[in-house]
From TrEMBL:
Keywords: Membrane, Transmembrane, Transmembrane helix. The keyword Transmembrane helix applies. Pfam families: DUF1761. This is DUF1761 domain-containing protein. It comes from Cellulomonas cellasea DSM 20118. The keyword Secreted does not apply.
Amino acid sequence: MDGIEILPVLVATVAAFVAAFAYYAVLGSQLARLGSAAGDGRPPGWMMPVELLRTLAVTSVVAVVVALGDVEGWLAGAALGAVLWVGFPVVLLSGSVVHEKVPWRLAALHAGDWLVKLVLVSVVLSAWS
């Protein structure tokens, strides 16, 4: 592991943040129909910086995994993103459906966002190396 470069982490963070924004902009009506507070109009001003920090946290963790696993190339990055998606968001979101009675369609909508983010971040970081 040579270390983590800040520029690829920042680029991947912004890319994932923009992708998530676009994802929910397109599917916002679905969120509203499913009864999610996230789909109820314009988010409060504090939410965007918090989401950016959350995305930076995820991107930083993926950067460590990419570096430790010596993941290189976009195809290996895409595979890593898919594996991370199954291992974490899918497990957590399915648990919320089973144990907390979250509607499965709402969980699936969020799972799609996580798939896009994790694959995008993993591809950017692994292709950069």
